[in-house]
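Forwarding the complex inputs:
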Amino acid sequence: MIAAEGLEKRFPGFTLRVPHLRAKPGRVLAVLGPSGAGKSTLLMLLSGLLPPDAGTITREGPAVYLDQHPYLLERSVLENAAFGLRLKGVPRARAREAALTWLSRVGLEALAPRPARGLSGGERVRLALARALATEPKTLLLDEPTANLDPANVARVEALIREEKARGRAIVLVTHNLFQAKRLADRALFLLGGEVVEEGPAPAFFNSPKDPRTRAFLSGEMVW
Amino acid sequence: MRRLFFSLVLSLGLALAASPLRLATTTSVHDSGLLDAILPGFTAETGIPVQVIAVGTGQALAIAGRGDADAVLVHAPALEAEFLRKGKGVLHACLAKNRFLIVGPPEDPAGVRWETNVLNALRKIYLKGALFVSRGDNSGTHKKELELWQAAGLWPQGKRWYLESGSGMGATLTLASEKGAYTLTDLGTFLFLRQKVRLEALFDRDDPRMINQYSYMAVNPKRFPWVNFEAAEKLRAYLLRPDVQEKIGNYLKDRFGQSLFEPLYGRCVIPVP
Amino acid sequence: MNELVEITLRSLFVSGSATLLAALFGFPLGLWLGARGQPQRLAASLLYAGMGLPPVVVGLFFYFLLSRSGPLGSLGLLYTVPGMILAESVLAFPLIAGFAMAGVAAKADAVRRLVKSLGGSELQVHLTLLAESRRVVVAALAAGFGAVISEVGAVTIVGGDIRHATRVLTTAVVIETRKGELERAAALGAVLLGVTLLITAILVLFGEREAR
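Prediction (whole assembly, three chains):
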């Protein structure tokens, strides 16, 4: 579970304000909005990578942030998957064992001994997911995980998100892809110019948005 | 490979242990190979290894003048006199001489070949504006060249035909050969390179102005207490010994048909006060 | 012992020691400067300017420093191999620190984000950064080594080109050229090139190896 109250982050010429946000265990919160709306900044604040200028964030259990362009270490696929556990001081053998389990869940166990730098785009994202999940976080903060992936890999990643949701993780999903949000989200939040325009349960959000700007965004009339 | 490395380290260690003598000398002496022929005998007799630093006479005296060498072997009497006067050097001894030559392209555009006076030869080059390469490096040969121009009452610096190489005698001869230019050289270096350059000895006469005198000096231990004066004294005595002097005179005599270095037995032909 | 082998080994010893000495100080500095992601402009300018230090000027500086009449004269390091190593390490230092800084800075943000997002500490950020910079380390070492083994200005002034004591490949090339023995000089030059290429290739291969 992760929650934020009165969150504020100021940049020159841009301010992000999120009065209230809550991601519950076993639920997916989709964060929508055009480029520059502040979606990635919001995730960085929630993960603790960026300190907020105002407001409080409450995390129950560890939250792991997954970068849009995940950095893969210049090591093997297996060492990459085990990296999060190694940081926590888990002995190498046990970390590798756990990493291997997660690699097989994302379908990469056959590539375990290979250098991570040689992976394709879809494989990179799946490896980064395995690396994050191996640390058993309570909350997953996903920044555009399927951007630039082919349909087969999009389907795989989405299936993984559903499984992790079913396992009781709280998931915040930043996405450009409206249809993906519809497929996965329990709640949705629309950001525009650093402000929360609308937030609510997925069916109501997608079927009867209250704000005209949300309507314009969902109907494709807003340019983004 | 590993054995070679160890013996390298070992030889370094030994060289340091035996407190070597550092001799700063001119490139012309060093490059002739003379020192490689006579110094091993000294080391064998005394156990003192000699480290030779080959630079121009100007630099050799500058190094020794800061106490960074124990002895010098140079060929610029005026600079040597100054070195002694300033109390930096002691035990001056004239070891050997040969002569300077003016060499140039076989066509000899300035007509130096028929000149009997070196100053007139230079005047001809000057008037003709023929290419001339100067060492320009403050070496003994460079000093001699400047002295000759001055004696001839000429000032060639800045003239378009007057080139300064700024390098050693061998490189300067090569440059003169490529450019078809005249230059002043010591006998030894020219004999070594004669086969490789397109240059002829055009002024090669017994002119007192063209004497090239090599001298040895120890660095003054009163001024620079850390120098290896004992070794410097021993080397002086060794170099002046009749049999060694003879060896210097005979060095490569067979190959060139004349002495590269005529022994002086300590008697200077150009006075060094 | 074959003199060519002796000179080549001495060249390798002097350049290798100087590179390692420079790396001992250059890597921590480069890592420290680069780890913030945005290197400080003043430090960066100083290092980049240092890469252009003229070897003869460094040589002359060390001559005055190590001369018996100079401040460190009592150590007796002028015209010795250790003296040459000191001067050469000063030439290699800005190259190594600068390369390390630039390479680390390029990865610093991404690595910090990864380590922090997985709950790692700042110390772990630095350790990971160091491990991820193998290639940079190798490039920096190769640059430093290449610069010092091929330079002649400083080794001539500080080493004196003494046969069997301080003669290295570059000074040997100079002396053979001066004597007009151009073929011998060219042969020595070929050895110098070959050695430099070989060492660089070994370093690069070493850096390309993936960690397990």
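The first helix of chain C runs from residue 3 to 34.
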